[in-house]
Amino acid sequence: MMLNEIHWSQQAAYPLLGMLQLLPLLGAGLLLYLGERRNAVAIGRGIALVELLLAFDLFRTIKSASPTMQLAEQLTLFDPFAYHAAADGITVLFVLLTALLTLLLTLYSLVRGLTEPARLLAVILAVEGVLMSQLVTTNLLWFVFASALELGLVGYLLWHWATSPEKDTMLVRFYQFQGVGLLLLLMGAMLLGWFHAEATGGDWSFELADLAAVPTGGAVGSVIFFLLFYGMGIRSPIFPLHGWLPWVAQHGNVAIAPTLLLGIKVGIYGLVRFVFPIAPAAIVEWHSVIVAFAAAGVFYAAFLAFLQSDLRRLMAFAVVSHTSLLIIGLFSLHAEGFQGSILLAVNFGLAMTVMLFCVGFVYRRTRTTVLDQLGGLFDRIPFIGGSFLLGGLAIVGMPGTPGFDAAHLVLEASIERLGALLTVAVALGNVAAAGFLLWAFQRAFLAPRSETSKFGVIERTLPMELLVIGGAVAVLLIAGFYLEPWMKLVEAPLHALAERFAHP
Q1: Per-domain residue ranges for the chain?
Q2: Less Cβ around it within 10 Å: N or C end of the chain?
Q3: What pTM did the predictor assign?
Q4: What confidence tier does 4 reach under pLDDT thresholds 50, 70, 90?
């Protein structure tokens, strides 16, 4: 991947990337100023809708056949921490996903009837703005600082709108893991900046184009790679760096913060955007070890998922299992594996959002997600139950969803680069994942209602719930049946990235 050093005014009619970052932040400030006034919530939803339109304008503007970074924007602050932003097809895909999920979250939060809705929307918009900054920046240090700000805001979401008596313990566990991840990222970035200065005899730089131009081989390259990989891996999360996720899933708020953490795979994006272009030699050297841990993670997480009694914890281990599949696709070091992993990340974000929304609406009715206390829900809320099932099937690659073709790309790349034995094992792990998700659906929705259930008559699905879940399901299915435009969007930059790797 190459950075096209052209100022925005030569490519777009306005600073599009800057607007994508600033609009949600300005909207968050406006909502905080307005407080819980009558029209504040409507304004928040309107800002989220405008942001989605800006994301579509980015999709319309970008040249999908180009492997280079486009629409470059620059603002000199103080070196080496300068604002540099640019986009390619990979960026566009994640920007669209972020804008769509944020809009759906603004609608979901109103259906759930959470307290202080204006403040909640302000925090959601602030997170969106910082996420956009991570997606469009080409400065690694800027990415790290934006990650720290985003995780601070998400931690506030987890704590302030959670009802679990163990939410304080959950927040401590969350910040312990994420703090270590950020520290590793910062150490890796600073080591890269020093290494660049030593290699070039010039100033420190954290710019992607500068860092990728200086080979990082040997022991120093391996240290840099693992610092960055572990930092991104904790965020993703991947096995065995996932210890924070079951706590967050069970004791944080049900869907809003988990969607921002898991629906938008910033850790995977960070690997593709920064780690793979910067440290190709170390990746070639260590990719077999990473793949071995990822393959173990598929089965480890699937096994633990079957042992869970809480639906939210079960979904946490589903995340770990399927993130391992993404890692295998990336570390196949094959263009089709890269492409499959990126598309799987988007499919995963949409499918997991559908499932989280469904779990949130179940919790609103029952005040529990313990499987032994659920059951018999499908007769009263068949649309929610059917959507949960569809989301689970999409995660494991059901035909008609983006995961179907994406999973095949990953498996094809795995066979070519990693061998048939590991590929068959990973495919069996995916079958196990389908088993525990279907098992969860059966216990929560189809099994007879438990005698220990404490909830009364289940409320029918509301029109706004139909809109929120139906919108996410519609996008998931449309993307599945019309996947070719999205494949073309990422094909050129990912093939350019694959050219950096010799056959291992």
Answers
A1: 2-498
A2: C
A3: 0.93
A4: very low
